[in-house]
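Field reference: sequence -> structure
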Amino acid sequence: MPFLNLKIKLEPNNLIIPSSPYQNYNIRDYITNYCRTKLKNNLDTILVTIPRGDAVLIGINPVVKSGGSLIANDTIKSNTTLFEDMTIKDNVKLIIERGKYYTITDTVTLEGTGFITGAGYLNIEQNGAVKVNSWNQSVFKGRQVNNPKIIWG
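Structure field:
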């Protein structure tokens, strides 16, 4: 069966992305479950290969919410929840702003010197976990009701 190569041009003004505070976006093909990460300033086109006569359904979501790979520094500026696995790549920081909560319901893997930092709070739900690469970067600040909480990765 022959394949069709599509080049999808995104019109930034028609997407919520220009006003979004996030930098890393997960491009997911829901038919094949193929995922890749692109940065906010590089979301102009998406290349897709599909069998002729088939369809494609693509989602574009912030990595810090939908999972994927964090390939550049990003910041949590409002209370946010992660619903799928996320990998923070080497030398990349996820910063949680003061007074904000970042809730993890799945696994976050820190590669190399990838790290979660900031003046905000990390909240790990029942199925959430942080896998660390180094004990030097394995303590996180959380909060339980009105009390501080130390979280070990």
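Note: The radius of gyration is 17 Å.
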